[in-house]
Amino acid sequence: MSEQNPQVMLETSMGNIKIELFKEKAPITVKNFLSYVKDSYYDGLIFHRVIKDFMVQGGGMNENMETKKTKYAIKNEAANGLKNTRGTLAMARTAVVDSATSQFFVNTVDNAFLDHQGKHQDRFGYCVFGQVLDGMDVVDKIREVKTGNKNGHSDVPVEPVFIISAKLIEQEA
């Protein structure tokens, strides 16, 4: 029997989201995400970008839209065969393929256009590294919040949606 995938509990101001991480398919990404979780990095940050029929994104900014300092960028593992389907977690990044740091998003719908489609920069895709096991109802609540513009950013929830804590769930062996 293979080792269980790590699980993380995201406690948000709208409820809890339990996540399973795919450490075999995305080892670098999972290790990176867990290093932020272990450092309590996400605690107190917000979901700063919410687009109802696309995704909810968080893990990099506080309620004043100030970016929190991150660790180094990681290699993009989007070619791992996993798809950006509803309920999966993927790493956010800039136009640069290997630029992901701490920000992640939960796909609220199937976003096939984000999947790895080739080696070229604009076809490389976004690395899926986990999925929501429990709490998709919370994600659906978050995706319905009213959004607006704040400090030069669009699609920002008018009432901040906080990540109260992100903790590794201790599992039975």
Summarize the structure.
The protein has helices at 27-38, 136-143; strands spanning 7-12, 15-21, 47-51, 55-58, 88-91, 104-107, 128-134, 147-150, 153-157, 163-168. With 173 residues, it is mostly beta strands. The model has no long low-confidence stretch (mean pLDDT 96).
Overall description:
It is a single chain. This protein has helices spanning 27-38, 136-143, and strands at 7-12, 15-21, 47-51, 55-58, 88-91, 104-107, 128-134, 147-150, 153-157, 163-168. The protein is mainly beta and 173 residues long. The strands form two sheets. It has an eight-stranded antiparallel sheet. A two-stranded antiparallel sheet has the order 8-9. The mean pLDDT is 96.
Secondary structure layout plus pairing:
Elements: E1 7-12, E2 15-21, H1 27-38, E3 47-51, E4 55-58, E5 88-91, E6 104-107, E7 128-134, H2 136-143, E8 147-150, E9 153-157, E10 163-168
Antiparallel strand pairs: 1-2, 1-10, 2-7, 3-4, 4-6, 5-6, 5-7, 8-9
